[in-house]
Design a protein that fits this description.
Helix content is about 15%, strand content about 60%. By secondary structure, it is of the alpha+beta class. A hairpin with a 4-residue loop joins strand 7 (about 140-145) and strand 8.
Length: about 250
Amino acid sequence: MRGFTRRAGKLFPLLATVFAALLCASRANAEMGDRPINYFFQLEELEYGFDNQENPLSWDSKSWIGGDWNRIWLKTEGEVPTDELAVEAEAQLLYSRLIAPFWELQAGVRGDVAFEPGFGDGRGFLVLGLEGLAPYWFEIEPSIFVSHLGDISGRFRATYDQHITQRLIAQPSLELNVAIQSVPVFGIGSGFNDLELGLRVRYEITRKFAPYLGFSWRGVFGETATLTETAGLLTSVPQGVAGVRLWF
């Protein structure tokens, strides 16, 4: 807990400075002719996992405010095991600029926190990434992160909506994480860290509300797998999921 408090004390001034800069940039662009301010919120995943172990509750959300060319994004995700008092969560505050049809360049900050009985820690990052639609309408998000301690990591995400009917939609997903340096306190080794694959099938009762069922698998590899095994955890975790997707 003390380590987290010290790191948070260094991170909060950085967050405040970047947030102020993002607001100023957004206001300046609005004055230069950007369209009126709009907003969007999407809870991409709010689900319960069935893995016969932690059976976690997890979420993944995105929201933005801005115009057609300039936006401020807030992305959050996290997981809470139901078998113990613990939480792992991440939040990103980003400024984005439309650089091509369907493509946004994003930059900002990210904060991670992890708590469990007897342990609490956190990290801050600078973020540079892209978000957009690749050919054949794949939604992809490549990102690079540099922590406040100089650790460099990367992430690649991809999803695709396959319409079975007008309301029934299958969504395969992929997430890959890599790291240059090891960060043992967070169970992260250098190199190829983990791969998560998922398939969720949702039924859109309305466009804004869709319950779903699915399956996900997460595997850790290399040095990360060694750290995971040392902590007494599994390196391969399949689970069924049930949840809801909504937006407004």
